[in-house]
Write a structure and sequence with these properties.
Elements: E1 3-5, E2 25-34, E3 37-45, E4 54-60, E5 65-71, E6 80-85, E7 90-93, E8 100-106, E9 112-118, E10 126-132, E11 140-141, E12 149-154, E13 159-164, E14 170-175, E15 181-186, E16 188-194, E17 200-205, E18 211-216, E19 223-228, E20 236-238, E21 244-248, E22 251-255, E23 264-268, E24 280-282, E25 287-292
Antiparallel strand pairs: 1-7, 2-3, 2-25, 4-5, 5-6, 6-7, 8-9, 9-10, 10-11, 12-13, 13-14, 14-15, 16-17, 17-18, 18-19, 20-21, 21-22, 22-23, 24-25
């Protein structure tokens, strides 16, 4: 795939007009924790090459490589996977297919990445696919017979949590060896993060108002509440010390289960013209990527 350079800009850019489809962009910060509080610095704007398009679902494949989903305003039916080399300032288009791919994640074996593919059949089938990092073949579905996959999370090389688009939506755990799957619960959010004890945090939505971050034991499939989510927010990350970080509007909030009684505001990013923060991703060396308008 051809590589192109992209310029990392400081967050001093004009406010873009939004079209009919909402525009999302990705921003990068250096994250530190000082006296128990998250501190952000070194802001970067990563998606100036597609400023009026859809840029979403960031995932760190390494400290220096960020995979994202990209859709240009010229083709709102087509979404591809891009790689951003953060130090070199280069971007590479990873997929160029008639289908649409979303949510790239490095698989546990490190030789493949996975993504949700929206296929071109009449039903617009959504399945979870795997693709080799060396791009030596065109990939294949991981679960040929499981469809309507919206989001997912690798528990380990054998088990995957799957968010099944349904009415109501359903959370299942699926086995890559035999394709079997088991229902866990319904009405969940799209975000899954690993706790330091190996359990998985996710959001359970009792109704439109009551959303709770839950802790799931992937072996017993039992779950218990951790804390109520911020009103209207369903994306979060967990830092190395166990601190939860969550966005709402232009602000970021933090919560530590054993140190805090509730959410505490960390920073208001409105002075960077950042609003409607959604997805978050953090690297091992303290880079924070966030999606916002």
């Amino acid at each position: 795939m051809a590589k192109r350079s992209f310029l990392f800009a400081l967050l001093l850019f004009p406010l873009f007009l939004f079209g009919q489809n909402p525009t999302t962009n990705i921003y990068l910060f250096h994250l530190e924790q000082t006296e128990g509080k998250v501190v952000l610095s070194q802001p970067r704007y990563l998606t100036g090459f597609n400023a009026r398009g859809y840029n979403n679902q960031p995932y760190f494949f390494s400290n220096e490589e960020l995979y994202i989903s990209v859709q240009t305003p010229e083709d709102t039916s087509q979404t591809e996977i891009y790689s951003l080399q953060l130090t070199k300032g280069e971007r590479t288009r990873i997929t160029a297919t008639p289908e649409a791919e979303y949510s790239p994640v490095l698989m546990p074996n490190y030789y493949y990445f996975s993504a949700v593919r929206v296929e071109r059949d009449p039903d617009r089938t959504q399945r979870l696919w795997q693709f080799p990092l060396d791009r030596m073949d065109k990939g294949k579905p991981i679960f040929p017979y499981i469809r309507n996959i919206g989001y997912y999370y690798w528990v380990n090389s054998r088990n995957v949590l799957l968010y099944i688009v349904n009415e109501p939506n359903m959370l299942v755990i699926a086995n890559t060896l035999d394709g079997s799957h088991k229902k866990i619960t319904t009405n969940v959010g799209r975000c899954f993060q690993r706790l330091n004890n190996g359990n998985i945090a996710f959001i359970k939505k009792e109704d439109n108002q009551k959303w709770t971050i839950e802790e799931l034991n992937p072996t017993t499939l039992e779950f218990k509440p951790i804390i109520g989510a911020l009103q209207g927010s369903e994306d979060f990350v967990i830092l190395r010390d166990g601190t939860f970080l969550m966005g709402r509007g232009s602000k970021l909030f933090q919560y530590h289960p054993t140190k805090d009684e509730g959410w505490t505001e960390v920073v208001d990013l409105s002075h960077y013209r950042i609003q409607s923060i959604t997805r978050l991703a953090v690297s091992a060396d303290g880079k924070l990527a966030l999606v916002a308008q």
